[in-house]
Please model this.
Amino acid sequence: MTAETLPRAVPAPMTHKQILQALSGLYLGIFVAILSSTVVTNALPTIVADLHAGQSVYTWVITATLLSTTVSSPVWGKLADLVSKKLLVQASLTIFTVGSVLSGLSADAGLLIAARVVQGIGAGGLMALIQVIIATMIPPRELGRYSGYFGAVFAVGTSAGPLIGGLIVDTDWLGWRWCFFVGAPFAVVALIMLQKTLNLPVVKGSVKVDWAGSALLTAAASVLLIWVTLAGDRYAWLSWQTAVLLGGTLLLTLAFVAVERRAAAPVLPLWLFRTRTVLLAITAGLAIGVALYSATTYLSQYFQLAEGKSPTVAGLLALPQILSLALASTVAGRIITATGRWKPILVTGAVLITAGLTLLGFTDRDTPYWQLAVAMTLLGLGLGSTLQNLVLAVQNQVNPRELGAATSSVSFFRTLGGTIGVSALGAVLAGQVGHHIAEKLGSAATGGSLSRPAELPPAVRAVVEDAYGQATGTLFQYAVPLALVALVCVLFIREVPLRTTNAVPGDAR
Model:
């Protein structure tokens, strides 16, 4: 046995204090990612109007980051199985910060979308690597004890982001660009803390990255997203353009599978799909990703464009979902650690997600806030009970030496679901809004003016706000069947007792 493999073979268990010290830097890193993602939510209507863009740009400012996060996370996960996790998470944080600064400096919509792609590459590393590192330090049986902290960080970042973004947009001497600059100081502090507190054994080995598979995966996801973003707006859902784009997606996917079957270090290991729990958890995560990202994105837009609220008020109105998510994540983690049972939590969460989306499906311009608050609370409780615990179910099933690939694969499909969901539902929203307005006004109000209903004549404003209200309810109705898919998948997951150690059987790699 060499000196390189010795630390992995006989790892010294970390004390609770050491774990908390390491988690401090990691959680600050994830806080930066979440904050920089959510801070823009309430600012987007202002950003889109200021850049004289339309609904498709509104969607792509979000999906650009989600797409690059999606396709980069498996690459980061694969690298985590081969080289220093600490170095990788610091690199991803640096890339994320650069992307954030470039986003704030963007002069037009195209540059903003490109900068958001860079931001997403860094976010993909943060999301995948931090979960891998935590799973490396803490056995599955004890993860629940610390997942509550993750839920709290997630909730604070998610709730603080829209509020901070709203305040920045509503402050004349700041402007929306500071929504992207605000995360930079947190990123610097996170880098310093990671350098001081994160100490992991390094297993050196030849780094083999499946670049061909990564390129094909990116191409397939991109073509699919182009289709769901433009369908129903630039062309009909049933059209020759749809046939071409879906055919291209299918061909690229088949090529990706062929490459992965022969790759020495596949970016997305196909063996994952032979494990029942992993396959069901990935499918459920893909469906739940739609609920997570779509609710956050389009509820904020609803409050501003259908109800005429300011960005700051829109952030406050979304608090029921955020606070309930934090509560559920914390309580669920404690219950799992105390009992070792995780499937009942998952089933309950999937039921609550379905109920929340169903209630949101009745949304229109005049929906009372208490009804929206109940729906958001149900949705938040469901998301808090499922997001991390689906990852836990997968991590508990795989060999510890494959934690990086398995964890990043779950993150990949969850983010892919959110990316496709935001794009597809954004297309539905744009189509529905255009249809409702055309019915009553013809071409009296089109283009970027729709991003600022308050500036329209009263009669036109009422029509535009009503259109956004009805369209928001419709897009949540489209999301309900996906929640039911997640519920069915969770019901069929076989509960396996949580491991009490992360030791690799046989040898330590």
About this structure: DSSP finds 18 helices and no strands in the chain.
